[in-house]
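Hello,

Following up on my earlier ticket. Below are the two sequence lines again, exactly as submitted.
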Amino acid sequence: MLRYFAIRLGRAMITIALVVTFAFIVLRMSGDPAQIIMGPEAPPEVIAAFRKAWGLDDPIWLQYFHYFGAILQGELGRSMRDGRSAIELVTERIPVTLALTLPALAIKIGLGIPAGIYAALHRGSLADRVVMLLSVAGFTIPSFVLGLTLVLIFAVKLGWLPSGGQDSWRHAILPVITLGIGGAAVLARFTRSAMLEVLGQPFIRTASAKGVPWRDVIVGHALPNAAIPTVTIVGFMIGTLIAGAVVVESVFSWPGVGRLLVVAVANRDLAVVQCILLLVAATMVTSNLIVDFLYGFLDPRLRQNAGKAS
Amino acid sequence: MATTTQLSLSGLTVSFDGVTVLHGIDLAIGKGEALGLVGESGSGKSVTWLAALGLLPGKARVSGSARLDGIELVGARPETLDKVRGGRVAMIFQDPTSALNPVLKVGTQIGEALSLHRGLSGGAIKAEAKRLFDLVGIPDAERRLSAYPHEFSGGQNQRVMIAMALAGEPDILVADEPTTALDVTIQAQILDLINAVRREMGMALVLISHDLGVIAETCDRVAVMYAGRIVEEAPAAQLFAAPRHPYAQGLLHSLPPLGGARRKLVSIPGVVPDPRSLPKGCAFAPRCTEMSDACLAATPALRSIEMGRRLACVLEPQSASQRQFEAA
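Thanks for your patience. The regenerated structure is below:
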């Protein structure tokens, strides 16, 4: 078992290292931070001083080693823009983003899973078709379209809710709905197909044949099996809690991690981008680990295989 | 067998999406009797019993009647059916491993039946489940109760299924191809087990199989099904000695004889007709060696031909069997 975890942890580390390297390459290939941050009219001496101050004159591979070495020591650098510590800049934005993504996650789970179960249990009915239609609409409409449509209806036309900003809880309503609907649609579809698959299994008939009332067949026999594929999707959604709102935050001018990322990329502010990507990679990897543990908890067949692998 | 009738089906008809797959089954089973149901795949053997217990999917249309000691099961309320299923009539299935819930311990699955039909709880469930495991021959019962289905072999899972079926102390056990998915060496063990527990508990048995050997060993009475109808019904000994329906004769001729001279095995030409386009008249007519114009005129009704024997064939019963045997 210990070896199983060690392997998983090692893989997680490699994933994060690759993400960090990828970010460095892309950001440094696509523009000169000195030129972008100081502006096109900056005199050459200023640019030269900036480059010297941030070590941008060193050979690129040396810069990479410095940068990677610093990360290994837990030093995530400072923003080239205002000199503040990158980690500080990022961490102060995390609660702001979670204020959108956590309620949105609750909507996804609270709406998507019951809708999927209901549709599966009433397959072919009007309710099933309505749920499926909404679900297709929900995940095919891009979030910026949905967000802008909601703004148009509820902020511009009806004037019920603010169109952007972060001044009160009312400002959060539209972005939370925008984020929640797409995910709820995905979960509804997934839950429905997982349920249908399980309901067609012979063991469901066995449970009925031994006299288990239908409701208990659903709750006691079908749901525990349908939960296994559904957990994968929920786990993926947990992984996007921190950086999954880039577009929606931009649409609603919500000053969260996503907005910070957009600004930092535009400025080639390497340390900040880096810090966000590290955080994202870490949450993704963690949520995958959690999903793996949940699998083992939900499915005894996997539990045994994991035991054998160790 | 002068037994009282416990469960009787009359005119039991099933259709899926407008296609009739079961055309009015009349069949009775007495207390403690062992009834065999034979026929090729798709002849309606399993559907008959799934329909009687209300276990078919929602799109199936079931009509006719299935009475268990006077209780009508077709169209019965769910609460009535839940008491009958497992409590009066238990069922075991072809592939035991997929018939058990993979994420629940086998002990839990047996315990469910014990609490539903026997009102047991807690320690009593555990003790009784252990007794049942001992009864069906699963060694190390106490420990194995907390194992999952994937930790058992197919044969052991069928033993678990049997233990689960016995948990409700049913009057009738319906075994739907209980040995088909198992290794040949295990098949005999499972059949012996079913026979032993049947005798011990005085249960009636409905054995659904396409394997005539299995039926011959176990059953008192046999009904032969073809294309959703019963075509012949007789006491097992009589059916195997002198089958009357050309289809039943064909089935027996396709078996190697246990004693006597070796002979060429005869197969029945053709395939089972599609229920969506059944031939006119007798459904077996196109494959029948004895076919005449009368066969195409109307579907022959199942009628009594002598004490305990019924036949659905236009031929004179006696001459049909004689001709067939002379020809062979």
